[in-house]
Amino acid sequence: TDDTAHNNDADLSISIKKQNEAEADDIVPTIKVDMSALLSADEDPVVTRRWLQALEDVRTRRANTGGPIKSAIKSAMSITTNPYVKTYLHKAMRKWKGNSAGFTK
Known about the structure:
- The chain has helices at 2-25, 35-40, 45-60, 66-79, 83-94.
- The chain contains 5 helices and no strands.
- It is globular, with a radius of gyration of 22 Å.
- It has a domain at 30-94.
- Helix 3 (45-60) runs antiparallel to helix 4 (66-79) and helix 4 (66-79) packs antiparallel against helix 5 (83-94).
């Protein structure tokens, strides 16, 4: 019976490992973005710097401080002239859940 229990544990371990590998293959980004198009769009470097500075504060904020994060994103959206950035930020805002900004951040 000890051999049977050991084999069952080994089979379970292999099964869990395969399941975890399959789940890892299914991971997709929360928001898809064409980074090459986003970065290659023509935009004045001064404008790019301004909208990046508007978002800089978001990095250090906790995800449950939604108001300032939402404000920073709206500010960046109004500053940028890059349509890909506007689309990306708009998609991020659609992930908004009340005052929790985890996915948006």
